[in-house]
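BUG: 3D viewer hangs when loading the predicted structure for this chain

Environment: internal workstation, default settings.
Expected: structure renders.
Actual: progress bar stalls at 90%.

Input used:
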Amino acid sequence: MLTPKQLKLFKFLKEYKQMNEVMPTFNDMKKYMQVKSPSSVHQMLGYLEFKGYIKRYPAMARAIETLR
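Structure tokens produced before the viewer hung:
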């Protein structure tokens, strides 16, 4: 079960990928989620990955895959 913020970010990832054919940047995610720190986005992405909603690939730009 996702928190409201996690769900908001997950939906944003899916919609952004569908519209633009690439995943959003950290700055895009920060702006959409209205947070100032990239660590906030990093933490939310970590929870999404832990809960099995996304897969991240290290050392690659925009390397996020939605699994659900």
